[in-house]
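Input.
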Amino acid sequence: MVATRAPEDACTAEPFVPDHGGLTALRRAAAGCRGCPLHRDATRTVFGAGPADARVMLVGEQPGDQEDRQGKPFVGPAGKLLDRALAEAGIDAGEAYVTNAVKHFKFTRAEPRKRRIHQAPTLREAAACGPWLAAEPAVVEPELVVVLGATAGKALLGSSFRVTEVRGTVLEEEIHGRRERLVPTVHPSSVLRADDREAAYRGLVADLEVAARALA
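Output.
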């Protein structure tokens, strides 16, 4: 008897990504994605959300606990902080498309039934989700991509990406065959963890103001 490999063994979402149908088709297909082992423990796929013609796309790391439970990106504490920072910077969060480099929540538990603790996805896991992250901007065609944190930056720009070196600048790069303008900044969750939260928050707002000027 020949053993068959599970879809996640290949560690790529590519077989699950539809060729056409827009965001609705992508979201429906992503709900059944088994392109890497992360789908086994997560409650659901958390796909991107926002207008199909959004001028700006925000890309974060992965869903958190609240996102996994609700099935929507950036609805937890980091998302609320991001909405406030966007408003201060002059970007309407309701007109932005928000997504993550990885579509399933990766976590660990110290004990059964205890709080789920976020774990950073590996480069391999982010690469497995790459076909989704390529498909979203191809459909939305944003004028600008705001890169939130190191995981998103490495997923889009390669493993040498360092957010501290390029945050708050406008980059122009070819990504998945498309020429993109990008503004990297920190992930809002890092602001919540910062020793000086106010200074970290002001830095995030300043970077987002660069993005707002780039869209003007």
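The radius of gyration is 17 Å.
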